[in-house]
Amino acid sequence: MSGLRGKQRMHTWHLKTGNKMAILGIDIGGSGVKGAPVDTAAGELLAERHRVPTPQPSDVTSVVEAVAEVAAQFDGGFDRVGITFPGVVVDGVTRSAANVDKSWLDAPAARLFSDRLGKPVSVLNDADAAGVAEVAYGAGRDQSGLIMMLTFGTGIGSALFLDGTLIPNTEFGHLELDGHDAESKAADRAREQEDLSWEKWAHRVRNYLAHVEMLLSPRLFIIGGGVSKKADRWLPLIDIRTPMVPATLLNNAGIIGAARIAEIDGRAPDRDGVAPHEAGERVAG
Ligand code: BGC
After folding, report:
1. At 45, which CATH number?
2. Between the CA of residue 60 and those of 102, 113, 206, what are the distances in Å?
3. Which of 28, 106, 187, 257 is the most exposed place for a label (fewest CB within 10 A)?
4. Could you give the CA distance from residue 241 to residue 178 in angstroms, rounded to a whole number?
């Protein structure tokens, strides 16, 4: 995209937000860093998203630069930024790095991004962000009780919600099942790497979901990640009691959920030094 087209687009989406707070959502994934301004009332992108490849290795300095490159396409025309990260994030500090460079362990991510972008930044786990988007605008909208989002991709991400409130940083992808880290057997990456048939892979996912169901008894599983686009191939093979639905926001859920969290953090005061999205602020509409 040329700079001029970017500026024109920025102008258009800024008009659409009127005088409301403008928010940029950025999703750091295994292969791409993607971002776009978001209409947090509708849960929709306000402009075509911009993507750059995730740097390899995905060390802190390189990823911060990739995020800055994405943000630069939208010309600073935003007040706050929400950013997803594929690991645990407490108080803006990244605490785990299962599928990214180990330099992220204990990195002050929110501060680093905020210093580089010159705006307030909220950072949260990628599955939490995707779940926030689904609960606020998608498959989990208007659902009460305990809802669980699971994303099947490079790893397995989890997000838990009680009555529209996020219980942050659950890591149910790393449950131990039959002596293995569950995501090493049941993530979509395992299906690809072991060249599993849909039936074989679905059998593993079924055992995994049955175990999570036994532990938590959620009212609904929302299934996200790339495999949710092919839900008809494998979802009918999963015979558990809990209802399951594929995610509806697909590729944009991370961007939209991150922006929603940045909005919430910008609106409500910290509670005893804890950001609102980690302190039980409602994320559903
Ligand atoms: C990480 C989670 C992440 C998930 C999906 C797991 O390996 O531990 O934090 O949400 O992958 O990216």
Report:
1. 3.30.420.40
2. 9, 10, 36
3. 106
4. 21
Tens digit of each residue's pLDDT (9 = 90 or more) over 175-219: 999 999 999 999 999 999 999 999 999 999 999 999 999 999 999
Q: How sure is the predictor about 83, in pLDDT bands with cuts at 50, 70 and 90?
A: very high
Instruction: Find all residues with CB under 8 Å of 102, minimum gap 6, and list them.
Output: none
C-alpha of 235 from chain center: 21
For residue 11, what pLDDT is reported? 47
Closest alpha carbon to 136 in 44, 242, 9, 226:
44
**C-beta 127 within 6 A of ligand 1:** yes
Predicted confidence at residue 250, as pLDDT, reads 85
In DSSP terms, which residues pair with 50 in a beta bridge? 35
Query: How far apart, in whole angstroms, are the C-alpha atoms of residue 38 and residue 25?
Result: 7
User: How much is the pLDDT for 13?
Assistant: 54
**Co-location of 86 and 162 in the same domain:** no
pLDDT tops 70 at residue 3: no
Residue nearest to atom 2 of ligand 1 (CA): 87
Residue by residue, DSSP assigns 131-184 as HHHHHHHSTTTT--SEEEEEEESSSEEEEEEETTEEETT--GGG-EETTEEHHH
How far, CA to CA in Å, does 113 sit from each of 159, 171, 182, 235? Answer: 23, 24, 31, 38
User: What letter represents residue 55's amino acid?
Assistant: P
Please tell me the distance between residue 152's alpha carbon and the centre of ligand 1 in angstroms: 9
Please give the structure tokens belonging to residue 217: 């008894």
Residues 19 and 125 both lie in one domain: yes
Strand pairing class (80-85; 23-28):
parallel
87 lines ligand 1 (CB under 6 A): yes
Q: Determine the distance separating the centroid of ligand 1 and the alpha carbon of 239, expressed in angstroms.
A: 25
Average pLDDT, the chain: 93
